[in-house]
Specification:
The structure is a single chain. This protein is an alpha+beta fold. It contains three helices and three strands. Helices cover about 40% and strands about 15% of the residues. Strand 2 and strand 3 form a beta hairpin. Helix 1 packs across helix 2. It is globular.
């Protein structure tokens, strides 16, 4: 069965980004301010996030889980 994923626009608002990443608006703004979120576009006071750039960066930064030691 294919998971149901809501369609997000190419340029997402902070609220849409928070929904996609399952976090809060406050957390998204904190990531933006620290420069830790890819795809950020500022238009005056408005913050938009490029969906494809964000998802691409998340995929690239994924590190394999450490193997569990047999204790």
């Amino acid at each position: 069965m294919t998971p149901v994923v809501p369609a997000f626009p190419a340029l997402m608002t902070v609220d849409e980004t928070a929904e996609l990443l399952r976090t809060t608006r406050k957390a998204i703004y904190a990531l933006v301010e620290r420069g830790q979120l890819a795809g950020v576009r500022r238009l005056g006071r408005r913050v938009l996030i490029d969906r494809d750039e964000l998802l691409s960066s998340l995929t690239e930064e994924r590190a394999p889980s450490p193997e569990r030691s047999g204790r």
